[in-house]
Amino acid sequence: MKKYFYCILALMPITSFAQNFQGIAVYESKTSFNFDDAETETEGDALPPEINAQIQEQLKKAFEKTYILKFDKSTSVYKEEEKLNKPSGDGTVMVSVSFNGGGTLFKNLKDQTSLTETEIFGKEFLVTNKLDKLEWKMTGDTKKIGNYTCFKATAVVKAKQNDEGDKAITLTSAPPRDMTITAWYTPDIPIGNGPGDYWGLPGLILEVNDGQTTLLCSKITLNPKEKFEIKAPKKGSKVTREEFDKIMEEKSNEMMEMNDVGPDRPGTTTTTRTIRIGG
């Protein structure tokens, strides 16, 4: 009888944790670039090494972002922390970065769906999508992230076929070629969620890498004093992911055509480096 009673006590904290749990996780992103995969257009002389270094530095800063994930046992809201942008340089070097999506991402793990509330080119959209269920493979490797013991898992994401053969750098959409995703999750927080579209592991994902971009959790607050409600976004024209991708492609082509219009200033060299973000 005593053994049975102790078993109930042992299970109570886990049950309570799953039913009433809330948390906030902060993630920092860092991205590396392989310019062999990027589209480069240069008018005039070849791209000087110092200009190439300047572009890489600008891109590095542009992709150093902070994201906030608010979650409970089955739903979450994921959003970039807003920061003031610094003024650009004199315009001699232009780095064009095309984002496919972004905004506020709502995930429902029960029905495996997501909603993304985003504004592109002055218009608001509400993008509906099914969550991709990755086939995670456990490796048995462990490491510490902060105070949490994390376990390693990997999955292969199949490439999307793009009509124009565009390259993509992304953590929330399918990459341009088969890519191995590496995630580190902690069973200490038994919530199958994580940053971006990532989910499906027996613990919160604290780090994930797609070969170019790493998202690393820098802070976790469990059961904060100020409770919050996770609500699905509602603003914007409702479209599917496929419809939104088509809109983005059309708008991106329009912007590229507009950037090609107009003469350069005398004595300048125009260099355009285009990185496509998303499918």
Strand order of the largest sheet: 9-10-11-12-13-1-3-4-6-7-8-14
H and E order: HEEHEEEEEEEEEEEEHE
Largest sheet: 12 strands, mixed
Strand content: 35-45%
Q: Kindly state the percentage of residues in helix.
A: 10-25%
The assigned structural class equals: alpha+beta
What ranges have pLDDT less than 50 throughout 5 or more consecutive residues?
1-16, 37-44, 87-101, 164-175, 261-279
Question: How many domains would you count in the coordinates?
Answer: 1
Radius of gyration: 22 Å
CA-to-CA gap between the ends? Answer: 59 Å
Shape: globular
**DSSP summary, beta strand count:** 15
Number of helices: 3
Kindly state the mean pLDDT as a whole number?
A: 76
Structure commentary:
The protein is an alpha+beta fold. The chain has one domain. Helix content is 19%, strand content 38%. It has three helices and 15 strands. It has helices at residues 2-20, 49-62, 241-259, and strands spanning 23-31, 39-42, 66-71, 75-80, 93-99, 104-108, 113-120, 123-130, 137-145, 148-157, 179-186, 204-209, 213-222, 237-240, 271-277. It has a twelve-stranded mixed beta sheet with strand order 9-10-11-12-13-1-3-4-6-7-8-14, covered by helices on one side. The protein has a three-stranded mixed beta sheet with strand order 2-15-5, covered by helices on one side. Strand 9 and strand 10 form a beta hairpin. It is globular. The chain starts with a helix and ends with a strand. Mean pLDDT is 76; it is low at 1-16, 37-44, 87-101, 164-175 and 261-279.
